[in-house]
Amino acid sequence: MRIHSALAVACLSTLSISGALADPLPVVAVNREIGLSMAGLFDNRVNGGSAIENTNATNYTPAYTARYHSRHRRIGWVPGFQVDASGMFTLGNVENIYAAAQFVLGSGSRNYKSNYTYTGSPYGNFSDEYGGGSGSHSTYTRGEIGKGFLVLQDRLLLTPFAQGGYITEDEYGYGDDGSSTFVGAGLKADYALTSRLVLRGRFGWAAQLERRFMFRGGVQSRWEGGLGLDYRMTRHFHLIGGGDYVYSDYGHGTTRYSYGGAYGGSGIESAGAYQNGLVLHTGLAYRY
């Protein structure tokens, strides 16, 4: 009888150890990784404005309406790298708690183009454009926390999350730099195409807390979308790759003014800015 009891205990122990050592589901495993990737960063940022000025007639000049328009654009690719770290764990009776961090650095040279026109003035019309290469350095740091839900017979993992992060941008050639903190939320989806290959998707939104370009009113929104693949080469090493797109709306501003006196008149000025970018990356991840 004692022998039978000992064998039963041994079997249960073996099963427990086997369960503990068993590999997690593919869609959970891809959320327990530390990865390093090579990256290419594309950026296209546009800002500009226009103005219309109505000036009254004087003893020296007739009444006239002058128009001004300007446009500034930074565009191009730079090389960089990306670091990802994520974890999915159980806390008490709550399974698939998710936490992740990401850091992306890009450094190189982008093109900077600027042009403006001024028409309608009795003093003449003017226009000019200039540009060239501009040293560009940027960092992107993001943290996420959420909860995963398994559906479709554990082949699909949906993870709503809250996010926050910090962005820095420096343009050495033209002194164009800035930084921004953002907070928001989103949804991740991981789908197991096979036991080795997982398709990954991410959608997010965030509000940028620092005002860029000094526009008044409204929320400066940041929209994010990404697709990627995660392929398990061995039990612990995965090949990763994908692309992440982002669009930032810095808003619009409009100012109306008037002035009196011998040189009286009125006018309206408006300005706006937006930015979109793409990060393509491929690398290797360790599943712990």
Automatic annotation (TrEMBL):
InterPro entries from the UniProt entry: Autotransporte_beta_dom_sf
Keyword entries, A-Z: Signal
Protein name per Swiss-Prot or TrEMBL: Outer membrane protease
Organism the protein comes from: Swaminathania salitolerans
Stretch forming the signal peptide: 1-22
Keyword Signal: yes
